[in-house]
Design brief:
344 residues, alpha/beta, Aspartate Aminotransferase, domain 2, Aspartate Aminotransferase, domain 1, 2 domains, eight-stranded mixed β-sheet, four-stranded antiparallel β-sheet, aminotransferase, Aminotransferase_I/II_large, pyridoxal phosphate binding
Length: 344
């Protein structure tokens, strides 16, 4: 992760970081009013959300946001949630642990395939699908919203990597086109650091009572002092400046990686839009991506096999290569070492 956006506290001056005495007491389960209001403006400006502060929950990252919404869905009588295939295995577990069925929905070059799914909700990453790196097309977006309006289903929009698009402005959030049918999830885990455990969920009105009840039971309220710091960062422009700066850093790393792949693995298919902190490299038919990843790790190169993210287990082999933590000067040697362990 590139260096901290500020020297110490927001604005760099500790005397500015005044915390009201009431902040040390138990707070609102949804988070502080201050941060929720700041987030409503920030998300409306940067992602096109229709966000009422009263419907924003400050959560411990996207993971808790997904868990909160799964609990709310189960409490409302839902039984089945559609998931992208491939996707993070932990998302499947977050669905199943609450007694819900996870139904895989295939992903192609236009994003998740929408064929009137017989599910109560759909969990998607439309801005930058993980791990394929595709963007949900306009046609698929319209189909998904039409499905939600017709059936009353809920779309859970994990706005993964939306801050890091390198070739153009990112596609606006789906939530802005159907706020009553879309629950929006965002986080600072990529923009600042995962250890902060700060994220947000914008919850449709019909799920608010359950979500607020469940959040109170989970951990009463999120930490007020952390929220104060984030609110100040956003209000003063420090957060936006930091994102703009690190976006350039990650873009350079991606360019170095793409060049190294073209040099050492010519002819290999590299997939995913110019965004985020990873690319997907497809392997030749018949090559075991798990075996390749193991050999690469023996050369101190971490490549994650695409098959690890497959729900139904029939995905063509590939390697997910992250570049968020590698120095630019080390990329060429790492790709050369990777190329050496892939069967000809």
């Amino acid at each position: 992760m590139p260096r901290s956006p500020v020297g110490g506290l927001p604005g760099g001056r500790s005397e500015d970081f005044a915390v009201p005495l009431g902040a040390y007491d138990y707070g609102d389960p949804r988070g502080t009013q201050e941060l929720r209001e700041v987030l409503a403006g920030h998300l409306g400006r940067t992602r096109g959300l229709v966000a009422d502060p009263e419907q924003i929950f400050v959560v411990h990252g996207t993971a808790q946001g997904v868990d909160l919404l799964m609990r709310a869905l189960a409490a409302e009588g839902a039984s089945c949630v559609g998931v992208e295939d491939p996707c993070l295995p932990s998302q499947i577990e977050r669905i199943r642990v609450h007694g819900l069925v996870a139904r895989p929905m295939p992903v192609d070059a236009a994003g998740v395939v929408i064929n009137d799914p017989d599910v109560d909700a759909v969990l998607i990453t439309p801005a930058h699908q993980f791990p394929t790196g595709v963007v949900l097309s306009g046609e698929r977006r319209r189909a998904l919203l039409n499905w939600a309006r017709r059936t009353g289903g809920l779309v859970l929009e994990d706005d993964y990597d939306a801050e890091f698009r390198y070739d153009r402005q990112p596609v606006r959030a789906l939530q802005g086109l159907g706020p009553e049918h879309v629950a929006y999830l965002g986080t600072t885990s990529k923009t600042l650091a995962p250890a902060l455990r700060l994220g947000w969920a914008v919850v449709p009105a019909r799920y608010m009572p359950q979500a607020e009840r469940i959040r109170l039971l989970l951990d009463v309220c999120p930490p007020a002092i952390d929220q104060r710091a984030l609110a100040m960062m956003i209000e003063r422009g420090d957060y936006d400046r930091h994102v703009r700066r690190v976006r350039k850093v990650y873009q350079r790393r991606r360019e170095h990686l793409i060049a190294a792949l073209a040099k050492h693995l010519p002819g290999f298919q590299v997939e995913g839009i110019a965004a985020g902190m990873h690319v997907l490299v497809r392997l030749p038919a018949g090559v075991d991506d798990t075996a390749v990843a193991a050999r690469a790790l023996g050369e101190s190169v971490r490549a994650v096999p695409l098959s690890r993210f497959s729900v139904v287990g029939n995905a063509r082999g590939g390697l997910v290569l992250g570049y968020g933590r590698i120095n630019e000067r080390d990329i060429d040697a790492a790709v050369a070492a990777l190329a050496a362990v892939i069967p000809a």
